[in-house]
Design brief:
Rossmann fold, 297 residues, globular, four-stranded parallel β-sheet, alpha/beta, single chain, 9 strands, five-stranded mixed β-sheet
Length: 297
């Protein structure tokens, strides 16, 4: 029981790290001058699971040499050599893998040390830190250029852009719906001023209860959520049983949205990782937000 609780808490911390990173995405450089002109096949090491997913979407799966322990999508990524957990990295392992390109997520934390290691190895280093939904296909295109896989990357990016455009067209101008997104329950955390997730909500016509918060993932009181009475609650959930438990918990607090069944469970990896699957999660968000919108008296 204790082990399961610790694992859930580690997942929450990972999500909070993702949210904190997205808030400063617009301040980060996209790539180096050298990386921008590289078109040869690479040996790629990724430092975050979203970077792994974007590399695969760009057609670079067969160029992957290693990644972090949390990279588990697509399924092929599970068999890659591991170089650490994204917070603590094994420099010796990275050197053994001989990467020519290292793809990170945030230029903070361990990143400066990895940049120094990349320089020592003669490897290029770039970052993928989308700040809005359309930045995800843009990063897929950019990495396709770096990897010499522009055909696959452009096709996949165009398909993503078409899906995003379709959502914008479908839900533009519809009545706003107040939304609460649960990140962790003990203690209770939510989405604050995270630009990427809030962009997904904007596309759907959703309004984040805590979108004006000063931090990307604020800790909030249950009473504050009850007072604001959101029309829809989004919870991280792996299966229907998890959704049911979370809905029942909120219903026990007296939250009307939960009592009336307006609780959507979303795979937290899809919702909180700034990668291609966030587009899948956004489609589910839009459908749930629209259903909640129809329930207005």
């Amino acid at each position: 029981m204790m082990g399961a609780r610790m694992k859930r808490w580690r997942n929450v911390l990972a999500c909070l790290a993702c949210l904190a990173g997205s808030a400063i995405a617009s301040d980060l450089p996209a790539t180096s001058e050298a990386a921008a002109t590289s078109v040869s096949a690479q040996r790629i090491v990724t430092l975050a699971p979203n970077a792994t997913e974007i590399v695969y979407a760009a057609g670079g799966g067969d160029q992957m040499a290693g990644t972090v322990s949390s990279s588990d999508f697509p399924p092929a990524a599970k068999s890659l050599p591991r170089i650490g957990d994204g917070i603590v990295l094994n420099a010796e392992r990275i050197m053994v893998l001989r990467p020519t390109l290292i793809v990170g997520w945030l230029r903070s934390g361990i990143a400066p040390e990895v940049e120094a290691l990349a320089k020592q190895l003669g490897a290029e280093m770039t970052y993928t830190t989308p700040a809005r939904l359309l930045d995800i296909p843009a990063d897929v295109r950019r990495l396709g250029t770096l990897l010499g896989t522009t055909g696959t990357a452009n096709d996949n990016a165009a398909a993503m852009e078409a899906r995003i455009d379709a959502l914008e067209s479908q839900y533009a101008g519809r009545r706003p719906v107040s939304v609460f997104i649960e990140v962790g329950s003990t203690p209770l955390y939510t989405i604050g001023n995270d630009p990427l997730v809030n962009d997904a909500l904007r596309i759907c016509g959703g309004v984040n209860l805590y979108g004006a918060s000063r931090v990307p993932a604020p800790r909030v009181p249950v009473e504050g959520v009850l007072t604001q009475d959101p029309r829809l609650v989004i919870v991280p959930a792996r299966d229907n049983d998890d959704v049911t438990l979370r809905r029942e918990r909120w219903a026990s607090y007296g939250l009307k949205a939960a009592i009336e069944g307006r609780v959507l469970g979303v795979d937290p990896d899809a919702l909180f990782r700034p990668g291609p699957r966030l587009i899948d999660a956004t489609e589910a968000l839009c459908a749930a937000i629209d259903a909640a919108r129809m329930d207005y008296p």
